Amino acid sequence: MIEFSNVHKTFNKGQPSEVVALRDIKLVINKGEFVVIIGSNGSGKTTLLNMLAGAEMCSSGKILIDGVDVTGLPEYKRSRWVARVFQNPMSGTAPDLSILDNFRLAAIRTSAKTLRIGVNDVFRKQVMEQVAMLGMNLENKLDLPMGALSGGQRQALTLLMSVMDKTDILLLDEPTAALDPRAADLVMQTADKLIKQYNLTALLITHHIKDAKTYGTRLIQMQTGIIERDLNTAAKELLTVQEMFGWFV
C-alpha cells in the first residue's frame, strides 16, 4: 500500500519564482491498483510521481510504502519497491549494449553490490521466454544492440525489464508520448498485461484521454496541485471520453 500523508511541495520557496506544485496531498493506493492520473500541464502529476520515486523530496508531509516511512529515502534506496518508465524510449536503456546485456543490467538493479548475474545459458533462456511473451519476434535476436530497435520495441522491453527484479510499484510517466499510435498501443497493451500478470501497483500519467478511459482501475484528475477527482472502477466506467474532455474546457 502507498500512502501520501499531507504531502506538500514548493519549488523556489521565498523567491519570485516560487511555485506550489502539490498542496497537502492525502492519498491511499492499495496493492494491485492501477491508477491513471490526468491533468493539465503544471497540475502536479509528474511532481507526485517524483515524490513517490524519491527524485524530489517533500517540503512537508510523509510518504509510506507498505507501512515503511520512505519520506527521507533517496531514489536509489526506493528502487527496492519502485521502478519507473519515462516518456522518452531512449531513456532507461543502454543503446550500445545488446538486448541481453540490458536485461542483465536490469536484473541486478536492486541487488547487493557483491552479487553478479552472469549472461549464461540459463539467463539467456529466461530472457528469451520473457521477451517471447511480448509477441514482437525479438526472442531470437537478443544479441542485437538496443539502439537498433524502434522506439516502441525499446519501450516495451523497458517495461519488461522494469518488472524483472520483483518490483512492487510501477510508475509510467507518459510512456507513449514520443511514440506513433501503433507503437503506443503496443506499449499500453504490454503495460496492462504486465501489471495484471505481476499484480503490480501502478501509476500512469497520460495526456491521452482514450487511454485514461480504457486502462486502469482508478482515475485521478489533478489540477493546481490538488486532486480534483478520484474515481473508482465503477464510476470510471460510467464516464464518456467526451465528458472527460469537458473537464479541461
The overall pLDDT, averaged over residues, is: 90
Low-pLDDT runs of 5+ residues are none
* CATH architecture field: 3-Layer(aba) Sandwich
The CATH topology annotation reads as Rossmann fold
What is the CATH class name? Alpha Beta
Shape estimate: globular
- CATH H-level superfamily: P-loop containing nucleotide triphosphate hydrolases
Question: Given the structure, what is the number of helices?
Answer: 9
β-sheet strand percentage:
15-25%
Distance between the termini: 34 Å
Brief description of this entry?
The protein is of the alpha/beta class and about 250 residues long.
Q: How are the elements arranged and paired?
A:
Layout (H helix, E strand, L loop, with lengths): L1 E10 L7 E11 L4 E6 L5 H9 L6 E6 L2 E2 L5 H4 L3 E4 L13 H9 L13 H12 L18 H12 L6 E5 L7 H17 L3 E5 L3 H6 L3 E6 L2 E6 L1 H6 L2 H6 L3
Question: What does this protein structure show overall?
Answer:
By secondary structure, this protein is an alpha/beta fold. The protein has a single domain (2-246), classed as P-loop containing nucleotide triphosphate hydrolases (Rossmann fold), CATH 3.40.50.300. The protein is 33% helix and 24% strand. Helix 5 packs parallel to helix 6. The radius of gyration is 19 Å and the shape is globular.
